[in-house]
């Protein structure tokens, strides 16, 4: 256990930050440019996980476990959210035969 | 009794309340009795107050009722001030008021608004009493406005006729112009003396230098108020139009009481005026000009009430002439005698109109001597009185004024004398056209000619007696030593100003000469009227006939109404049209609607952001977050 900790701490924090930022941006870009609702949800998950990873890394580096507690919270909330989101998407698919977000524009003026 | 003097105005006010609240329920007879008796009781109380004040040593009594306004250093109590001047007015208002109430019971007998009429009359008496009893200018102002309101209500009493409503509005608006002056005067008084009470102002004022600019401003402002209320040049045009009201109203309000409020106010403020010679001159010149001007108009009017209305304006001019030359007693004396004979003349005219079923045109009258003997006899007495034939009352009061005018400046006497000649001429013209010659109305009217009922003739007789003997209250010094009872009675009121003004002195022979000239002149004037309207049987020309020169000027009232129309009304109208078209529609509406339109346009653009495309929302969201981060980074 000690060893694992030391291994993780031996990698500089900056690397984690850059890595997580990259993952996050990939997620953002995915949300912005994809039209399939399921893939957008996946991109959101990617963003969430980028944040989770960062939280875990900070937690280890500072020796403070509360960061990891947050990770669990986020994962639980994200799972619940995805369950609701997927249910909505399934209903939309049943009614329109498509999950393309560009045809879902009924909420306009 | 003096301590209870607040009962005097209270009684008519109660009469007003009872009649006003019970318009639908109270039968006509009861309304008339309530209205008349309340004023009768006031009259009795006024007599008691008069005798008590006369018997006591106190020259004047202040009755404080309650504190009214108390702001900072300014304290205005609600109190009454009873002195000889107040008493004279109290007796005139309640005495003549009572007679006119009785007369109204007969005159308005068939009118559906009978109860309303009596409630208005009572309210008027209440306000008029307040005006003369108030111990300060502010309480006077309440009465002043109140009588204006009642005058408005009563002129427009027959409100179904639009012309009458216009006359009422005209009276109201013209009076507002004057009231502005009055109010400014009161503010100046407060600023100068820190009070509106007579008992505080007059002793302080006596210490001022003659010609003090503050007093000048105050007196001029107050005089503007008097000009409006007492129908002097240039604010007189409402009074002739006010004849639209029922005839008893013309007699009570527009001849005997309210229009003399201006005289009362100037007489009350005599010390202020005595100390501002310029104001005195303004008062005298305005009065004299009005006296001549109105008389010139009166000589060619054909409506019996219009003749009397212009005559009233002219006589009020005389009273202001008296005030202006320092003959305060003479002015009050003339107010009193004028109240007797002018009320009588109006009531007599009302009696004639009553008999002719609302015919007011003298060209349709004539020969009423036999059909209406009482009306004829009483009106003849009143006409002799107003023309200044001795020993009728008008002679003495007018003579006193003219003598003072002569002492002041002979030219004033000459013009005043000319006005007296005109007065005699138009009054007898009216008498001759109405009562002499043949009847010129329709056959049907001729059948129905009748003397008025006794409720109407008894007041006529009482007033006729007063018109005849009223003058003996003020016999001039040349006729009997110290026989000017009214003058002696009023002396304490004018004592202060008497010290400031030069004492009137005209040698006895001159005064006898002046009297003789004016009596002879008046007799000659009557003679001319007689030869024109009785001997030659001239009937004034019909409306359609074109008049030329002076005749046209007089007949059309010197086109003053037209002048006001052109000088005041039309430019005002044009200005308001301009403001309506440009300021209101363009500027204000433009501004208000412009704001609305801008917001609508703005939001219709903003609306397009609401595309409903999830992709764009996501983009805005991300862009927004980035923007916030950037701002955060740049600013902190």
From TrEMBL, chain A:
Segments traversing the membrane: 15-33, 38-58, 70-93
Organism superkingdom: Bacteria
A GO term from the CC aspect: plasma membrane
Keywords tagged on the record: Cell membrane, Membrane, NAD, Quinone, Translocase, Transmembrane, Transmembrane helix, Transport
Catalysed reactions listed for this entry: a quinone + NADH + 5 H(+)(in) = a quinol + NAD(+) + 4 H(+)(out)
MF GO annotations: NADH dehydrogenase (quinone) (non-electrogenic) activity; quinone binding
Keyword Membrane: yes
EC number annotated for this UniProt entry: 7.1.1.-
UniProt-annotated location(s): Cell membrane; Membrane
Pfam families hit by this protein: Oxidored_q2
GO BP of this protein: ATP synthesis coupled electron transport
Enzyme class: translocase
Keyword Transmembrane: yes
Membrane topology, as annotated: Multi-pass membrane protein
Function text: NDH-1 shuttles electrons from NADH, via FMN and iron-sulfur (Fe-S) centers, to quinones in the respiratory chain. The immediate electron acceptor for the enzyme in this species is believed to be a menaquinone. Couples the redox reaction to proton translocation (for every two electrons transferred, four hydrogen ions are translocated across the cytoplasmic membrane), and thus conserves the redox energy in a proton gradient.
Assembly behavior: NDH-1 is composed of 14 different subunits. Subunits NuoA, H, J, K, L, M, N constitute the membrane sector of the complex.
Family stated for the protein in its record: Belongs to the complex I subunit 4L family.
Name listed for the protein in its UniProt record: NADH-quinone oxidoreductase subunit K
Lineage, broadest ranks: Bacteria, Pseudomonadati, Bacteroidota, Sphingobacteriia, Sphingobacteriales
Gene: nuoK
UniProtKB/TrEMBL annotation, chain B:
Annotated transmembrane regions: 32-53, 88-105, 117-135, 141-159, 180-196, 216-237, 249-267, 279-300, 307-333, 339-359, 371-392, 412-436, 457-475, 512-534, 617-635
Entry annotated with the keyword Transmembrane helix: yes
A single BP term in Gene Ontology: ATP synthesis coupled electron transport
Cellular location(s): Endomembrane system; Membrane
Domain NADH:quinone oxidoreductase/Mrp antiporter transmembrane: 138-423
The entry's keywords: Membrane, Transmembrane, Transmembrane helix
GO molecular function, one term: NADH dehydrogenase (ubiquinone) activity
Stated name of the protein: NADH dehydrogenase subunit L
Source organism phylogeny: Bacteria, Pseudomonadati, Bacteroidota, Sphingobacteriia, Sphingobacteriales
């Amino acid at each position: 256990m000690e060893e694992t900790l030391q291994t993780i701490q031996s990698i500089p924090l900056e690397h984690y930050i850059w890595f997580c930022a990259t993952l996050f941006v990939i997620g953002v870009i995915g949300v912005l440019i994809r039209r399939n609702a399921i893939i957008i949800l996946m991109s959101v998950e990617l963003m969430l996980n980028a944040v989770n990873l960062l939280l875990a890394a900070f937690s280890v580096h500072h020796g403070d476990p509360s960061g990891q507690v947050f990770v669990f919270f986020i994962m639980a909330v994200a799972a619940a959210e995805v369950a609701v989101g997927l249910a909505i998407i399934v209903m939309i698919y049943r009614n329109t035969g498509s999950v393309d977000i560009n045809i879902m524009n009924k909420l306009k003026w | 009794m003096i301590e209870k003097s607040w009962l005097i105005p209270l009684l008519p006010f109660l009469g007003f309340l009872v009649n006003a609240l019970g318009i639908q329920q109270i039968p006509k007879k009861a309304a008339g009795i309530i209205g008349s008796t309340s004023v009768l009781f006031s009259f009795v109380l006024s007599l008691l107050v008069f005798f008590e004040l006369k018997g006591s040593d106190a020259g004047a009594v202040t009755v404080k009722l309650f504190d009214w306004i108390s702001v900072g250093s300014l304290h205005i109590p609600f109190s009454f001030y009873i002195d000889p001047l107040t008493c004279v007015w109290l007796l005139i208002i309640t005495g003549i008021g009572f007679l006119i109430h009785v007369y109204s019971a007969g005159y308005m007998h068939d009118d559906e608004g009978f109860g309303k009429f009596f409630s208005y009359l009572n309210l008027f008496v209440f306000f008029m009493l307040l005006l003369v009893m108030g111990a300060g200018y502010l309480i006077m102002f309440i009465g002043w406005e109140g009588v204006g309101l009642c005058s408005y209500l009563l002129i427009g009493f027959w409100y179904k006729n639009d012309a009458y409503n216009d006359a009422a509005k005209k009276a109201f608006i013209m009076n507002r112009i004057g009231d502005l002056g009055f109010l400014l005067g009161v503010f100046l008084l407060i600023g100068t003396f820190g009070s509106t009470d007579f008992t505080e102002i007059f002793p302080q004022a006596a210490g001022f230098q003659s010609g003090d600019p503050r007093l000048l401003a105050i007196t001029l402002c107050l005089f503007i108020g008097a000009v409006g209320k007492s129908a002097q040049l240039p604010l007189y045009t409402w009074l002739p139009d006010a004849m639209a009201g029922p005839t008893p109203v013309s007699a009570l309000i527009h001849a005997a009481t309210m229009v003399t409020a201006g005289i009362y106010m100037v007489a009350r403020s005599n010390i202020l005026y005595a100390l501002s010679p310029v104001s005195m001159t303004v008062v005298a010149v305005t009065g004299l000009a009005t006296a001549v001007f109105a008389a010139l108009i009166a000589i060619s009017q054909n409506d019996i009430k219009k003749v009397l209305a212009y005559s009233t304006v002219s006589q009020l001019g005389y009273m202001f002439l008296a005030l202006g030359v320092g003959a305060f007693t003479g002015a009050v004396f003339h107010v009193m005698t004028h109240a007797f004979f002018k009320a009588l003349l109006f009531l007599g005219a009302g009696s004639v109109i009553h008999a002719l079923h609302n015919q007011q045109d003298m060209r349709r009258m004539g020969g009423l001597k036999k059909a209406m003997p009482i009306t004829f006899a009483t009106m003849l007495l009143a006409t002799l009185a107003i023309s200044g034939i001795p020993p009728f009352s008008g002679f003495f009061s007018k003579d006193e004024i003219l003598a003072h005018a002569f002492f002041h400046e002979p030219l004033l006497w000459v013009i005043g004398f000319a006005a007296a000649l005109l007065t005699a001429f138009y009054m007898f013209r009216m008498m001759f056209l109405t009562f002499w010659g043949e009847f010129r109305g329709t056959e049907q009217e001729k059948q129905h000619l009748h003397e008025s009922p006794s409720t109407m003739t008894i007041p006529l007789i009482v007033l006729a007696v007063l018109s005849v003997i009223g003058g003996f209250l003020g016999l001039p010094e040349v006729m009997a030593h110290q026989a000017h009872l009214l003058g002696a009675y009023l002396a304490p009121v004018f004592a202060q100003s008497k010290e400031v003004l030069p004492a009137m002195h005209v040698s006895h022979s001159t005064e006898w000469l002046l009297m003789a000239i004016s009596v002879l002149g008046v007799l000659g004037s009557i003679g001319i009227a007689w030869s024109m309207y009785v001997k030659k049987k001239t009937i004034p020309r019909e409306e359609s006939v074109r008049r030329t020169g002076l005749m046209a000027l007089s007949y059309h009232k010197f086109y003053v109404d037209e002048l006001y129309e052109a000088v005041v009304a039309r430019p005002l109208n044009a200005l308001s049209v301009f403001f309506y078209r440009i300021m209101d529609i363009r500027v204000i509406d433009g501004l208000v609607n412009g704001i609305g339109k801008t917001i609508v346009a703005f939001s219709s653009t903003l609306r397009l952001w609401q595309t409903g495309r999830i992709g764009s929302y996501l983009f805005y969201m991300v862009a927004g977050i980035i923007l916030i981060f950037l701002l955060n980074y740049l600013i902190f």
